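pasting for the record
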Amino acid sequence: MGLKAQITEDMKTAMRAKEAGRLATIRLILAEIKRKEVDEQIEVDDAQTVAIVEKMIKQRKDSITQFEAGGRADLADIEKAELAVLSAYMPAGLSDEEIAAEVAAAVAASGASGPQDMGKVMGIVKPKLAGRADMTVVSALVKKALSPAA
């Protein structure tokens, strides 16, 4: 079963169980998927669905930071609940060692020799690790791998 179909089934389950918060978040996911399908006139696949959910997770994390800085714990709690639901649809994350191994393989495959080749390496790594690793961490590892040893 595809991820989109799984989300739809989870929506039905949440409706039957009368889980209002979970249902609202799942409907937000499905609305974003539908918006992308209509805007781009495509059928969204699992990789695109993961990208949509990843973007929504990033938005929730930013909102939580803003609400906590503004002293709005009530709104931050709502965002945290949505974040928990969204996180359930992400593929299993990779360990730091697995990420480092992927970065090392990409550096070797691209023949990168310095910081100017960071775009090449990220071009190889990003599709492999999208949704499975924090891209800011990956970027930092790539930068570290390409910087000249002091």
